[in-house]
Structures are given as C-alpha cells and as structure tokens.
Design brief:
There is one protein chain. By secondary structure, this protein is mainly beta. The chain has one domain: Aromatic compound dioxygenase (Protocatechuate 3,4-Dioxygenase, subunit A), CATH 2.60.130. It is built from two helices and eleven strands, in the order E-E-H-E-E-E-E-E-E-H-E-E-E. Strands 1, 4, 9, 10 and 11 form a five-stranded mixed β-sheet that branches. Strands 3-2-7-8 form a four-stranded antiparallel β-sheet, with no helix packed on it. This is Protocatechuate 3,4-dioxygenase subunit alpha.
C-alpha cells in the first residue's frame, strides 16, 4: 500500500537537473524562420516588490502560423520543415534582480473552442522556492487589441486585471512583461 508523503516545494534546488534545458533564445540556429525575432524582458517580484532571484520562467508557444510543435496539434503533421525546427519552448532562471529575458517570435493565433481563435499568446509557467505547485499564466501582445478583446480566456478575466497579462511595448523593440506574485498589481494566474 502506498501512503501519501509530505508535500515538497519546487525549490530551492529546482535548478539542479533542469538547467541543461535552459533556452533563452528560441530563434537560435533558425535563420529561415519567416518571422521577426522579438525580445521579451521582465522581472518577477514578490508581494512586497522584492525580486525573486531563484525562480525559473518557462514558456510554451505556437509558431508564427499558430501551430504548436506537438503531435496533438492538427497542423503539426503538415507543418513545414521550418516549423518543425522551432520548438516553441524556452526556459530561463531569474537573475539576482528577478529579471528574465527571452528572444522568440510572435506566435500566430491558435484554435479555441467552438471554432473561435485565441489571441496570440505565450503560455508561461513559474517555478520558485516556497511553491508547492508551479504557477501558470499567459502573456498577450499589446498590438493585438481586437484579438485580445475576443480571446475566450482573456475575456473571462475581470477587466481591471487583464492588463497584468498584456506585455507593454517599450518603443525600443523590446516587450516588457513583469510578473507580480501577490498584492497590488498581482498577475493573474490560472488553476490548471
């Protein structure tokens, strides 16, 4: 008979065994991607505004045509070779100041329920010391106002909190998206 064991957090040793999968540049070695590289920078802070220096940020996304590199995506089987080489997966540790940075491409819209389209987005997971389970959220793009308004998940988020899921264009070719774990301006997290 198996007995339940005590809960364990995802840290403080979450980097051991995981750092080999770190990937900050999802476009590296892919010169033929038919999409422009974008940079996403941000910072993870706790409820008091202090940086989270020992976290890990993961993202999973579709390619520029809205196809995930996964056999369950109907478009994957017919994906062109450029799509097959774009993994859509990135992982970086947070820096001592809580910052993180990815280079990737903007994903295309993906299918939603009942034939609808989801706005282009990144699926984001956060791991850090003290958490019993990773946090799940999304990052949406600021230049997709209409698609964001019609997105079936974003539309379920209270209007006053939607901005926590939308990156900001810095005007310098970098998108800025901060993650606030608690308190004022807390990022919306999903229970999945």
């Amino acid at each position: 008979m198996l007995y339940p064991t005590t809960s364990q957090t995802v840290g403080p040793y979450l980097h051991i065994g995981l750092s080999g999968l770190n990937c900050a540049d999802l476009t590296a070695g892919l010169p033929h991607l038919e999409a422009t590289a974008i940079v996403i920078e941000g910072r993870v802070t706790d409820g008091q505004g202090n940086p989270v220096p020992d976290g890990m940020v993961e993202l999973w996304q579709a390619d520029a045509r809205g196809v995930y590199r996964h056999p369950d995506d109907p478009g994957f089987a017919s994906a062109e070779s450029q799509s097959a080489s774009f993994t859509g997966f990135g992982r970086v540790p947070t820096e001592p100041d809580g910052s993180f940075r990815f280079t990737t491409i903007k994903p295309g819209p993906v299918a939603g329920p009942d034939g609808s389209q989801q706005a282009p987005h990144l699926v984001v997971s956060l791991f850090m010391r003290g958490l019993l389970k990773h946090l799940s959220t999304r990052m949406y793009f600021p230049d997709e106002t209409r698609a964001n308004e019609q997105d079936w998940i974003l539309s379920k988020v209270p209007a006053a909190r939607r901005e926590t899921l939308i990156a900001h264009d810095t005007g310098s070719g970098i998108l800025r998206w901060n993650v606030v774990l608690q308190g004022s301006g807390e990022t919306v997290f999903f229970d999945i």
